[in-house]
Amino acid sequence: MNDQSLGEDDDDNAESGKDIHPLAKLSVVAVGTKIGATVILKMAKHPILLFGMGIISGYYINKNRKEIIAAVEDVKQYTVSIGKKKDEN
Fold first, then answer.
1. Residue of 9, 34, 71, 88 with fewest CB within 10 Å of its CB?
2. From first to last of its 89 residues, what are the pLDDT tens digits of the chain?
3. 18, 25 in Cβ contact below 8 A?
């Protein structure tokens, strides 16, 4: 097996992830949100852990602020394009 064939398989696998049904994506997001909310509520009972979470999230946001802003702009452009498509129909 050569190195090029490995790269082609990785590209196929990456593209297959895009074919996930929207309802499957929604269910994964819903489950993740529920788990995250449960963890945060349990950690909220311990102020030191809550404070630590704030410091860690602040560091992460500060470190990756350019990527976060770019992602928000992408979502904004996508929603504007959806609105334009609805107006056309």
1. 88
2. 444 544 444 455 445 556 777 777 778 888 888 998 888 888 888 888 888 888 999 999 999 999 989 988 988 888 888 888 777 76
3. no
DSSP designation for 1: -
Write the single-letter amino acid at 28.
V
Residue 34 CA to residue 40 CA, distance in Å, equals 10
- Which residue is it, tokens 């770019």? 70
CA distance 65 to 61: 5
b or e along 36-74 (b: 16 or more beta carbons within 10 Å of the residue's beta carbon)? Answer: eeeeeeeeeeeeeeeeeeeeeeeeeeeeeeeeeeeeeee
Q: How many residues are given for the chain?
A: 89
